[in-house]
Specification:
The chain is α+β, with helices and mostly antiparallel strands. The chain has 2 helices and 11 strands; from the N terminus they run αββββββαβββββ. Strand 4 and strand 5 form a beta hairpin. The radius of gyration is 35 Å and the shape is elongated.
């Protein structure tokens, strides 16, 4: 009868002992360093110095803001900026239509013109917009004339950034303006009759 040749195991007991020893040495080192750190005194709350806290205005921390968020037909709104700032400004009307307000001079096509060019805009700290006369580039294929922007009541969103066609709002500043497409109601005069 022919007995097959049985091979010896790859690891013998002595080799296995040395492998366990090699792994045990770093584990023991980690255990000892952990135990040594337990002997250090913990910091008491009085030992911890608070970080300097800077109180700032929410408007000052923004690249763009406005003083009044409600405007009526014919009124001017003012956008304020920290300088220098991004070179593009756009606006989205209540229906979701996008308009370019500020863009580079070399991007002008047909009669499409920015309210102010990007080259000038980056150093401006205030931009005034008259809601009755304001026209902008509607960013629509085939339209080569600026179109009126404030045509209906609702919320208009002004966008400031280097890339206004992004879904990530971390890279753009947004200011919301509530617009009423009618004249601001005046105060009613009350006449008193004297006897």
């Amino acid at each position: 009868m022919n007995i097959p040749n049985i091979q010896k195991p790859i690891f013998s007991c002595s080799k296995l002992f040395f492998m366990k020893l090699i792994l045990a040495i770093p584990a023991a080192g980690l255990l000892l360093t952990g135990a040594a750190s337990l002997q250090k005194p913990a910091l008491a709350p009085a030992d911890i110095q608070p970080a300097a806290i800077e109180v700032s205005s929410p408007l000052r921390d923004r690249a763009m803001w406005t003083d009044k968020s409600l405007v009526y037909k014919g009124e001017a709104l003012q956008l304020h900026f920290t300088t220098p700032h991004a070179s593009f400004l756009g606006v989205i009307d209540p229906a979701g239509k996008f308009y370019y307000v500020v863009f580079p001079a070399e991007s002008c096509v047909g009669n499409l013109r920015p309210l102010v060019t990007s080259e000038v805009f980056v150093d401006m700290n205030t931009l005034s917009i008259n809601t009755a006369k304001f026209k902008a580039d509607p960013y629509t294929s085939g339209v080569l004339d600026n179109q009126p922007v404030f045509t209906t009541s609702g919320t208009y969103r002004f966008l400031l950034g280097e890339n206004l066609h992004t879904d990530d709002e971390r890279f753009i500043e947004i200011v919301k303006i509530n617009y009423r497409h009618k004249k601001r109601p005046g105060k009613k005069a009350i006449a008193y009759a004297s006897l």
